[in-house]
Amino acid sequence: DCPTRWGTKQKMIARILEQGPAIRRVLDDRRTQHLIPTWQDMEVMESVNAALKKVADFTDALSSERAVTASSLKPVLQLVTEDLLLPAEEDTQLTRNLKEKMSAVLMEKYSAPSTQQLLAKTAFVDPRYKDIDISDEVKDELMEEMMNVPEEQRDDGDGKGASAPNPPKKPNLADLLGEKKEKTSTPTPKRIRVDTEIRRYLQEEALDSHADPLVWWRDNSVRFPLLSKVARKYMTICATSIPSERVFSAAGNVVTSFRASLKPDKVNMLVFLAKNMKAGM
């Protein structure tokens, strides 16, 4: 059992219920008969399993290291609390109580205004969930962050170590017309660019739920230069602590009693290599 992944409890309980007859036969001995689960034990496990099994798959999905997870939290919470954890007619009283308790705990864990704003921002910048209902306050904060994105500096070639200048060439018609256009055109105010990006982003068709939002942003970052930088900030957030725990587990495999004298920089490199080799990079 893993305390941070309660989905493991559901899997163990489901396995016991599945193998109930085999467990009874194995324990059907005078010395071990007291270990056979009673009918009350089986009823309790059936009630617990009924409450957990509908949401158990989400624990594995939100613990992924290779997929964006934080942006899925808001829609997942809505689905779990407004649908999957609602009492059903066939539920026992224990199952109903467990569902109500789980729903209350989830609502309390994410009830802080700052957490709600963070969940709304991460969902909005995910093209799969961009149509989710968010407040104007959250949208204004995102637009303010877009306003604070530093402008990209163009390389004018005056830096040190620059290559030798190319020999002058005779300007053609395109060069002459381009110079005139640059002189007559004025840069678009940043506020207008921000409003335009948000409007065009909302007009885009929502991405399929099975598609990779990171690939979408890679392909569309040129069209949304400001919003893509804000999205990069929020889409790297992990929904759970599981990826961090996996890193510590990898470090525990590297630093053992036989390798306790490794220097910190060596440990960092070994952990980095171990994680990347596992990911197939």
TrEMBL record:
Pfam families: Dimer_Tnp_hAT
Region of interest (Disordered), residue spans: 151-191
Molecular-function annotations in GO: protein dimerization activity
UniProt domain HAT C-terminal dimerisation: residue ranges: 197-277
InterPro entries: HATC_C_dom (IPR008906), RNaseH-like_sf (IPR012337), ZnF_BED_domain_contain (IPR052035)
Domain of life: Eukaryota
Transmembrane annotation, as ranges: none
Signal sequence range: none
PANTHER family: ZINC FINGER BED DOMAIN-CONTAINING PROTEIN 1-LIKE, ZINC FINGER BED DOMAIN-CONTAINING PROTEIN 4
Protein name per the record: HAT C-terminal dimerisation domain-containing protein
